[in-house]
User: Fold DUF1343 domain-containing protein from Emticicia aquatilis.
Amino acid sequence: MQQLSLLCNQVSFDFVSQQYLFRILSEKKTLKRLFVPEHGLFGELQDQEKLDETNVYESLDLQGVEVVSLYQHNEKSLAPEVAHLTDLDAIVIDIQDVGCRYFTFTSTIFYLFESLVKHNLSPYIFVLNRPNPAGRQVEGTPISAKYASFIGLEGLPHRHGMSIAELCFYFQEKLNSKLNICVIEDYTDTTINPVSINPSPNIPNQITPLIYAGQCLFEGTTLSEGRGTTRPFEIIGSPDFSWQEISHVCDKINKDWSTKAVLRPLKFIPTFHKFTGEVCTGFQLHLLNDQNYHSLLHSLSIIRELAQIKEDLWRKGKYEFGSEKTAIELLVGDDDLLDFLYGKISLQIIQEKLQESESQWIDLRDRIHLVKNKALSS
Assistant:
């Protein structure tokens, strides 16, 4: 009998049979191991909360299935141990990316592939392809080894515009490997929105993936990025701002962006995370037109303005596995973009750099798309 492992979380739910894929496979007695990424099997864990013990899932009664967390306190846990791979005939990947390099599920897939290549293992890899909720738009620059970490694989731009299957073929090429990747297309009910099940706790709706490439940068600041509210990444603020300061920033940014997005001043109280229970003054980003809306450039411009009125804007200390650098350095991942935030270079220079790097990535993405389609037709 074939021995399978499954890398998934709560999005791996079939609305026709109304069952999770891990339940279907376990009942068929083919599922040997279940790999769980950051945020847990049901997206029950907030960002950077580690899952060392998986006995919380014993009540699921997945008899004979070993549950392995790929996000523990030990950095080595980010990649499966060789003992968790050598006895497998196939690995099934059913995970929802949101189109951005900071979203760690992409890193988890890469580390899985890297382990297979390192140990010269070649199980079949079945990739259940899902639409990218951020679409095909590309934003940003490829991150260099200097800033690479678990929240930014070397070479990926901020917003990659790829599907999960395309990412897998890109990783295969990056590793110079011949992994046995098999793509299963259009297996989901197309009437179900791709983010109808939250892929992680703070991706609550269809808007979040469209603004995430830019607004996630606020994790690198001392401001609340809206965690602890019902609109994470849309709502930003701090108890340290005055209403006049925020209103001034909103007015200035809105002059250039009002056809695409508008910042609305407000006050809010986070129920957890930064500034729990405190009244914050800030803004909500309202996306008016997502056609050619450049979230990264918009958010960089907002943060640059806020940095001029708040001296201690940058979050200090180590932030994530794989690097000793600060959060803003890892998230931005580019010296020129960082210099723009710090007010050292002009908007025009950044726009020209973004245009060039995005054009190069689109060429690569389109070539990988052809590789994926060739694999599907063979």
Q: What stands out?
A: The chain is about 30% helix and 15% strand.
